[in-house]
């Protein structure tokens, strides 16, 4: 088995698991939350173990130097701002939108109406497409 087929298999497995768990949101949140905490616990303890070995590992994983090099990596990869602020907040600031908690009830109701109206129009388009398909299939 080559690496490409392993990755493809794991990707399909992830899709199936995510699909099933998405119907059980509390269980999904518990599994995800516990897994994330244990992952970071493992990273933390591994860094501690390597730092205790001394030598260059001490300086690499010494807390003040860790802050410096990880901040640089996060900045270089573009993850620093995204992780600590979040995409939604950045986009709302760029678009000069209000935060959800600052929106009035009237604004929220207006947005909900607009969403329902778009859904209705999409439903009409879907119905029209079905009718067109039926006409085409009858002609064939």
Commentary on this structure:
It is built from seven helices and no strands. The two termini are 46 Å apart. Helices cover 84% and strands 0% of the residues. The mean pLDDT is 86. The protein has 140 residues and is mainly alpha-helical. The protein has helices at 3-21, 25-52, 56-61, 63-77, 79-84, 87-94, 105-139. Among the domains are: 1-45; 103-140.
Write a concise keyword list for the protein shown above.
mainly alpha; about 85% helix; about 140 residues
Compact summary:
This protein is mainly α and 140 residues long. It is 84% helix and 0% strand.
Could you estimate the helical fraction of the residues in percent? over 70%
Structural class label: mainly alpha
General shape: extended
Q: What would you report as the Rg, rounded to the nearest angstrom? A: 25 Å
First and last CA, distance: 46 Å
Number of beta strands: 0
Count of runs of 4 or more consecutive helical residues = 7
What is the H-and-E element order? HHHHHHH
Largest sheet: none
The stretches of 5 or more residues where confidence is low (pLDDT under 50) are none
**What value does the average pLDDT take?**
86
Beta-strand fraction estimate: under 5%
Oligomer designation: single chain
